[in-house]
Amino acid sequence: MLHELLHEAPGPSPLDPPHHPPLVLVAASGGADSMALASALAFEAPRAGLRAGAVTVDHGLQDGSAARAAEVADRLTALGLTPVDIAAVTVGRSGGTEAAARTARYRALDTAADRHHAAAVLLGHTRDDQAETVLLGLARGSGVRSLSGMAAVSGGTAGHTGRYRRPFLGIDRQTTRKACLVQSLPVWDDPHNTDPSYTRSRVRHEALPILEKALGRGVVEALARTAALARDDADALDLWAADAEGTATAEDGTLAIAALAPLPPAVRRRVLRRAAVAAGAPAGSLFARHIEETDRLITDWHGQRPLNLPGRVEVARQGGRLVLRQADRADGADR
């Protein structure tokens, strides 16, 4: 999988010096997953005509984190990776520590990739991480897209879609640890990964073992398969929704009720979510209940007042159309 993803990596950036091979970075925390991936990248990149570098992020959440990041950087350099960046970040509080740390981490990775004109950034997520992500999505009740877990190729800043590659999604965590052991690669086990105050840690050390005890081994593989199937379904529904949105949207950005009403709920609600985000609602703050209430303006209309969505977006039904816009620009609705 790593070999395939490397050969699919984009060509050199126009900002790179002439005849300079494309650069691929690996995000490495020092744990077994990322160190095994860093070692694999160091081996495969020259054979694929690529340069290999790395980024390690210091979240500053533990005593001695700066020294630990420097130690990880030394290990990455010893593998032959260059450049090797240490990115110190400040983790905020929005959405909880886990979400804030993830946001800060990806921002740092994007910054490093932009600075070095990297063709791709490799992440060490494994099949076990995928299973945990599916369970977390199931617990949130957030729909098939959430159940689809992490994509093998995703993300990136504007103009860099597909920047992130996850070549280890088909490999279990035990395999990466064995790979480090065989190569005598020292690894660091983040104590946050066993801290029960973190939701993912509880899923990893409590929920999944209970499921395996009750249902037998193979739960992780089954959840990862579920993610792949759900992703195919979600991608198909998203394409359908994009087509439906084009048909229903007028030049002024309003949506035709007559075009939305006959759509299957899964498609119509995707159209509504896309419209809400386009109007200024933060995607991370839009929950199922927001979209369900908006949907009732179409399917259960009885003169409701306009709805207030996150991001000061107001949605109202006006003359057979659905209007989504910033609240300070709203000017009334059907009564």
TrEMBL record:
Xref: InterPro entries: Rossmann-like_a/b/a_fold, TilS/TtcA_N, tRNA_Ile_lys_synt, tRNA_Ile_lys_synt_N, tRNA_Ile_lys_synt_subst-bd
Major location (coarse): cytoplasm
Residues that hold ATP according to the record: S29, G30, G31, A32, D33, S34
Localization (cell): Cytoplasm
Domain of life according to the entry: Bacteria
Single GO BP term: tRNA modification
GO molecular function: ATP binding; tRNA(Ile)-lysidine synthase activity
A GO-annotated cellular component: cytoplasm
EC number: 6.3.4.19
tRNA(Ile)-lysidine/2-thiocytidine synthase N-terminal domain sequence ranges: 24-206
Reactions catalysed: cytidine(34) in tRNA(Ile2) + L-lysine + ATP = lysidine(34) in tRNA(Ile2) + AMP + diphosphate + H(+)
Record keywords, A-Z: ATP-binding, Cytoplasm, Ligase, Nucleotide-binding, tRNA processing
Boundaries of every tRNA(Ile)-lysidine synthase substrate-binding domain copy: 255-322
Region (Disordered): 1-20
Keyword Cytoplasm recorded: yes
Protein family membership: Belongs to the tRNA(Ile)-lysidine synthase family.
HAMAP family hit by this protein: tRNA_Ile_lys_synt
Domain notes: The N-terminal region contains the highly conserved SGGXDS motif, predicted to be a P-loop motif involved in ATP binding.
Function in brief: Ligates lysine onto the cytidine present at position 34 of the AUA codon-specific tRNA(Ile) that contains the anticodon CAU, in an ATP-dependent manner. Cytidine is converted to lysidine, thus changing the amino acid specificity of the tRNA from methionine to isoleucine.
The protein, known as: tRNA(Ile)-lysidine synthase
Organism of origin: Streptomyces xiamenensis
